[in-house]
Amino acid sequence: MAYYSRIRDLREDNDLSQKELAKHLHVSQRSYSHYENGDRAMPIDILERLAAYYNTSMDYLVERTDVKRPYPPAKDVKN
């Protein structure tokens, strides 16, 4: 999977160690390392937490978009 470089870049740009980020995500440093290195697929719930941590979208994390900011909240639709 190609998105692991973006996840690593975000972590490094924020001067975080794998251990620090893993602690925030409630996973071991070893598990996080496997995700970041592409040895294991990152579970959706971890991607959700990572996107929330960086205030971005999961689409940005997995390189479906280059727009870094998150999507705006959905508006109520009234008939």
Topology:
Layout: H1 4-13, H2 18-25, H3 29-37, H4 44-54, H5 58-61
Helix pairs in contact: 2-3
Written description of the protein model:
The protein is mainly α. The protein has a single domain (4-61), classed as lambda repressor-like DNA-binding domains (434 Repressor (Amino-terminal Domain), Orthogonal Bundle). It contains five helices and no strands. The chain is globular, with a radius of gyration of 14 Å. The model has no long low-confidence stretch (mean pLDDT 88).
Number of strands: 0
In the CATH classification, which architecture applies? Answer: Orthogonal Bundle
Instruction: Write down the overall geometry.
Output: globular
**Weakly predicted, low-confidence segments:** none
Give the rounded overall mean pLDDT. Answer: 88
Class based on secondary structure composition and strand pairing: mainly alpha
Sheet-strand content, in percent, reads under 5%
Tell me the count of domains.
Answer: 1
Give the radius of gyration: 14 Å
CATH homologous superfamily annotation: lambda repressor-like DNA-binding domains
Cα(first) to Cα(last) distance is 42 Å
In sequence order, what are the helices and strands, one letter per element? HHHHH
What would CATH call the class?
Mainly Alpha
What share of residues is helical?
40-55%
Total of helices: 5
